Amino acid sequence: MDSLELPEPVVSDGRHNSTANDTTEEFKVELGLEIRLFREELSAVREEIRLFRAEVKDLKSSFAATDERISTLDSRVDVLEKRVMEGSGSRLEAVIAELRLELNEKDQELLGNDVEVSNLPEENGENATHMIMAVATKLGVTLRESDIVSAERVGARRRAPGEGEDAGAGAAGRPRPLVVRFTRRAVKDELTAAARVRRGATSADLSQSSAPRPFYVNERLTKYNRQLYYQTREVGRRLSWRFLWTKKGRIYARQGQDTPRHWIRSADDISRVFGVAS
Fold this sequence. Notes:
The protein folds into three domains: 26-75; 112-158 and 171-220, Alpha-Beta Plaits; 221-278. It is elongated and about 145 Å long. The chain has helices at 14-85, 90-109, 128-138, 185-197, 223-238, 267-274; strands spanning 114-118, 148-153, 178-182, 216-219, 243-247, 250-254, 262-264. It is of the alpha+beta class. Keywords: Coiled coil.
């Protein structure tokens, strides 16, 4: 009878158990590190949320302050609009009026070398430069052609009623003014002074075919000053003021020989000086 063979006992290998234990420990360590990192990130997120909430709070405060300032400005605008509507904007109107006067005076300065000869007969083919030189000679002023920058008739030519294009020389209605610019203001001043001395001079002896008529040499004025001077003369003559004149583009009025001189800059000055509505 064969003897029964028993299986050999299995002897455990300590190396396998050691490896499993090491793996478990490494996993625990890595898991602990991951948890720690997660907690750190969570703390960082919480800190960011806290800072964000603080910034939102600051923004709300800033918005509230801005809204308050806007409301204050809106109230001030309402007050200003109310003042303007109630007529307290007159100061602004006064400032604008003063600026307009200053601009007019600047424009007048640009005409400082100019004269305007009015009521001088106008003829076809005339030479404006020769005409003003003839006028100067009649007034006793020696004028050279080099003293003249420009000379021309200005404005639309006016014709007498019923006249056609074939009307002869001197047949036109009221002549256009002759505007002359000199190279120097002294020449202009000399000519206007001579015209005042020889007030009433006519166009006789000026080699014109038209009937003689009185002509007038004055400083050239801006459109505003020309209209203002006309108004001043109308009121002054009606009230028998003796002296109404212009000098260096400014309009002056004086009631009598020993009365003060008044500078007229606007229609309001006419009312103030003459005591009547302009």
